[in-house]
Amino acid sequence: MTRRIDLWWVVGVLLCLPLISMALMPLSDTSEPRYAEIARLMAQNGDWITPWFEPGKPFWGKPPLSFWAQAVSFRLLGVNEFAVRFPSWLSMVATVGLLLAFTRAFFDKRLAQWTAIIYSSCALVYITSGAVLTDPFLVLGTTFSMTAFMMARQFPTLFWRYGFFVGLAIGLLAKGPLALVLVVGPLLLWLLPDRGRMVYVRALPWTRGLLLTALLSLPWYVMAEIKTPGFLDYFIVGEHFLRFADPGWQGDLYGTAHEKTHGTIWWYWLQATFPWGLFGIGLLLLTLLKKGGCNTIRQAVISANISYLLAWALFTPLFFTFSGNILWTYLLPCLGAFSLLLAFGWRKWVEGSQWRCAVNTRWMAAVVPLVLVLLSLFAYVSPNHFKTEKGLIHFASQQAQAHSLVYYVDERPFSARFYSGGAAELLKINEVSAKLDNSTLPLLLAIPKKHLAEVFHELSVPVQKRYENKRYILYETRPGLAPVVLSIMAN
Fold first, then answer.
1. Is residue 282 exposed (0-12), middle (13-18) or buried (19+ Cβ within 10 Å)?
2. Residue 26: DSSP 8-state
3. Which of 131, 208, 231, 273 lies at a 20 to 30 A Cα distance from 396?
4. 402-442 pLDDT, tens per residue?
5. What InterPro entries does the record point to (predicted)?
6. HSE of 217 in the Cβ direction (CA atoms, 13 Å)?
7. Do 216 and 169 form a contact (C-beta atoms < 8 A)?
8. What are phi and psi of 406, to 5 degrees?
9. Bond before 30 cis per omega within 30 degrees
10. Do 432 and 459 meet the contact criterion of CB atoms below 8 Å apart?
11. How far apart are CA 343 and CA 341, in angstroms?
12. Among the residues of 290-323, which ranges form H helices?
């Protein structure tokens, strides 16, 4: 009985462990604090239509669903790391719930438990479940659609029959038309070879369902274009077509292109599925080498349920194989199906009385959570080893002088904007001298270490070092100090 441990405890622990990192890990540049600052501005200004990259500059890169959730969380829980990450965690828990319901309906409870364990301990899932990103909301939408498509025929309740269309709306508001591609693509792969599978299509209320999707998602797109004309052209053409087709796309208004060699997505797949991806590859090779293994795989693939999971699991990496402008987070929508397939394949390998051997794989589920919890503890104790301005801004805010406003020289990280509540100012290097000449009070200058010599050449008053982190040194201008201090600091 001890070997047949109730795996719900394992599932529960895995789902709750990210809460530790969410509270301890500071926001590190660039993605997390960038999205957190957009959400903070939304919560502060009450503008629920247009996300703002910074005051006066709209953010056209993503729809607002994640920012809505994060802004609401700020208002309920305060402006902090845990609050802004909490909606991503809720999305992950909801996604696991959908996978559990789907697996129990088409397979059994034990397989559902292992699917949840594998999924929630994959590196990409575990990391993004406690991160400020839009992807957890996208995967919630695509998973809702993919599970509801099959469930609607077997369980024709309103939840499942209309869940497919609600999932599309979630995806459209979380990431945009890409969500349609990641749902329709695998469905076509699965439906086209067998016309008999059209019974699943006929189980859905397409007219009313698509109207529901439109009512939930299109109003925001219309209002966003009216409020900031040009949004649709940039978002639809730029973010969806040019970003996919042009690896070196230079039109990105908010970052840089992620230019990679075509096919890099499969290397990302190994990272995203760690440690289970390597285990799955090994299991597949062992099955092929086993007597009758090819026939076993062939029989499994013929199954409607397994072939559906294969289409779901393979479409996303195949689709992005032909794009060189990619991130590893793009793989998140396919990991639910991968987790179920791996759980199913492992059970087939040790089926019957040998199922107890599967318990020995529990240690694999601990690898990623253990590393991330330890990393979070280290980050909490020594934040200055990470690319975050939390410590520097906190130090500056504790200064007694009311004029201790931080000026970031040459570049101002998103984490500085977030932790200062937007108060951290930006000074270009050629503006430093004029700013100091016009100020009779001490100022705090956060100077990039890589530009120290260049900035010191522009300084016209003495400075004193006050704080140092991974990327910046904080200096305080001291008009009353002797000029020799400047030369000492410059050296």
1. exposed
2. P
3. 131
4. 455 799 999 999 999 999 999 999 999 888 888 887 777 78
5. ArnT-like_N (IPR003342), LipidA_mod_glycosyltrf_83 (IPR050297)
6. 23
7. yes
8. -90, 130
9. yes
10. yes
11. 5
12. 293-302, 304-321
Evaluate if residue 352 carries a pLDDT over 50.
no
Residue in 336, 319, 346 with CA at minimum distance from that of residue 244: 319
Q: How many CB atoms are located within 10 Å of the residue 46 CB?
A: 9
Cα angle, residue 84 at apex, residues 312 and 137 outer, rounded to 5°: 15
Residue whose C-alpha is closest to residue 36's, from 352, 347, 436, 420 = 420
Alpha-carbon span 128 to 107, nearest angstrom: 27
438-489: pLDDT as tens digits: 777 788 999 999 989 888 887 777 888 999 999 999 998 865 544 433 333 3
3-state secondary structure of 5: coil
How many angstroms separate the CA atoms of 42 and 63, rounded?
Answer: 13
Q: Which amino acid is at 343?
A: A
- Helical ranges in 255-354 per DSSP H: 264-272, 276-289, 293-302, 304-321, 335-349
- The model carries a pTM of 0.91
Do strands 472-477 and 444-448 pair parallel, antiparallel, or not at all (unpaired)? Answer: antiparallel
> Dihedrals φ, ψ of 350, to 5°?
-120, 35
Instruction: Supply the pLDDT for residue 192.
Output: 92
Residue at 118: amino acid letter: I
Rounded CA-CA distance 232/402 in Å is 44
Is 29:387 a contact under the CB 8 Å cutoff? yes
Residue with tokens 């987070």: 329
Compute the distance between CA of residue 146 and CA of residue 333 in angstroms, rounded to an integer.
10
**In this structure, what token pair is assigned to residue 243?**
């970003």
φ, ψ for residue 447, nearest 5 deg = -110, 130
Please report which confidence band the pLDDT of residue 239 belongs to, taking 50, 70 and 90 as the band edges: confident
Q: Which residues pair with 325 in a beta bridge?
A: 259
Q: What is the pLDDT of residue 440?
A: 74
Residue 251: strand, helix, or coil: coil
- 256 vs 35, which has greater pLDDT? 35
**CB 301 within 8 Å of CB 104:** no
Minimal CA–CA distance to 98: which of 78, 119, 126, 77? 119
Q: CA dist 233 to 60, 111, 163, 415, Å?
A: 10, 45, 30, 29
8 Å CB contact between 141 and 98: no
Q: Which residues, at least 6 apart from 98, have a Cβ–Cβ distance to it below 8 Å?
A: 140, 143, 144, 147, 336
SS3 421: coil
Instruction: Return the closest-CA partner of residue 336 out of 116, 182, 10.
Output: 116
For 288, counting Cβ atoms within 10 Å of its Cβ (0-12 exposed, 13-18 middle, 19+ buried), the class is exposed
Instruction: Please state, in angstroms and rounded to a whole number, the distance separating the CA atoms of residues 435 and 419.
Output: 23
Structure tokens at 171: 């995806």
pLDDT of 26 over the 80 cut: yes
